[in-house]
Structure formats: structure tokens, C-alpha cells
Write a structure and sequence with these properties.
globular, 6-stranded mixed β-sheet, alpha/beta, 6 strands, 6 helices
């Protein structure tokens, strides 16, 4: 149920279904040689660890946080991740620190494989992207909000797609021009904003 401004009043979902996704249930379903796998912290930690362990070294593993209560489930995956998208509250929870989006993105990127990219958003506030020791930040476009629910997922999906398109992984991260990171952050924020404004994605 949404209010007149598109804000969520109440929603119902059986999130306990994720707990049924055990390693034994999901590992046989993985493709033999995937190019990329995207997970979120709704899955049990043992399942996330099993998925990561099943992937070849050249397969990209991307993750999103989903909530402050569950984001800690990603802790054991950090040195295997090739990209991570979190909101500021999730980033604070995962790092155990309070900080700006820039500071949090830098800390988290340093703990990922080869200083992989981390995008930390903050609703309508400034978002930051850190990768390869660099960090850039930008506010999302100003919009008339239609429905914010799902905008973060769209932003993350757009960002992961951009990472794949740019082959943003070792050893390319260290030499990635700052201008490309600027473009990637802008494009991801536009995708999320368009969705929140009710525009087609």
C-alpha cells in the first residue's frame, strides 16, 4: 500500500522463503560457467558462501545489501566480490562505522577483490562510487517522486550492467579513468531516479 507521494505505508512478503534456499537446493541450478552472478543478503550466509565457492575466478560476483538486519551476511564474501551496492545505513552496519558516503565507499572498496567498485547511495542525498583507490560522488537527479520502492534495485541492476559492459574488474580497475567512474555513477543514479519518477526503464 502506497500513499499519495508513492511512499510505502505497508507491505507483506514471506521473506522466510529465502531461508529454504539452501546450498543443496541452489548449487545444482547454477550454470556451469556463468559470466556473472548477482546475489543479495536475503539469502542465508551459508548459501552465499557456497555460491561464491562454486564460481570460477573469472566469474564476476556482485552483491546488494537489502537491509541493515541482513547485510552482515555479506561479510564472508567481501574478498570475492567484484562489485557491491549498498545504501548508507547498510554501509554503516557492514563497516561498523559512521561516515559520509565517500568514506564508507572507500573503506568497503578496499576490502573487495582488487579494490572493486562499491556504490553507496543515500536516498535523495549524495551517492558515492569508489573503485581502484578513487572515489567520486554526486547527488541523484531531482525528480517528482512517484514510487521510491524498487528504485534502489533498478539502480543496482543498471550499475552491475555497466560494470559488465566496462569489464570493470582486475586489472582494469586500477587504470579506470575517473571520467568513466563519473559516467557510471551518473547513469546508475539516472536509472534509479527514472524508476522512482514513474518513467519507463
Amino acid at each position: 500500500i502506497l500513499d499519495q507521494d508513492g511512499e510505502l505505508i505497508i507491505g507483506v512478503a514471506n521473506m522466510a522463503l529465502y531461508d529454504e534456499v539452501t546450498p543443496a537446493a541452489i548449487i545444482p541450478l547454477l550454470p556451469e560457467h556463468p559470466q556473472a552472478v548477482m546475489v543479495d543478503a536475503n539469502f542465508p550466509q551459508e548459501t552465499l558462501v557456497a555460491i561464491a565457492g562454486r564460481l570460477s575466478n573469472d566469474c564476476c560476483l556482485y552483491a546488494t545489501g537489502t537491509s541493515t538486519q541482513k547485510v552482515h551476511r555479506l561479510a564472508l564474501l567481501m574478498n570475492r566480490l567484484d562489485a557491491l551496492v549498498l545504501n548508507r545505513a547498510e554501509a554503516c552496519e557492514l563497516t561498523g562505522k559512521m561516515g559520509t558516503v565517500d568514506e564508507l565507499a572507500i573503506i568497503l572498496s578496499a576490502s573487495l577483490r582488487a579494490h572493486a567498485p562499491v556504490l553507496v547511495s543515500d536516498g535523495a542525498g549524495v551517492a558515492a562510487l569508489a573503485a581502484g583507490g578513487k572515489v567520486i560522488s554526486s547527488p541523484p537527479p531531482e525528480i517528482t517522486l512517484a514510487n521510491a520502492n524498487g528504485a534502489g534495485d533498478v539502480m543496482a541492476a543498471a550499475f552491475f550492467s555497466l560494470c559488465l559492459d566496462r569489464a570493470l574488474g582486475p586489472p582494469n580497475i586500477a587504470v579506470m579513468p575517473k571520467e568513466i567512474l563519473d559516467d557510471m555513477l551518473a547513469d546508475a543514479l539516472v536509472a534509479g531516479a527514472n524508476f522512482a519518477a514513474g518513467n519507463a526503464v
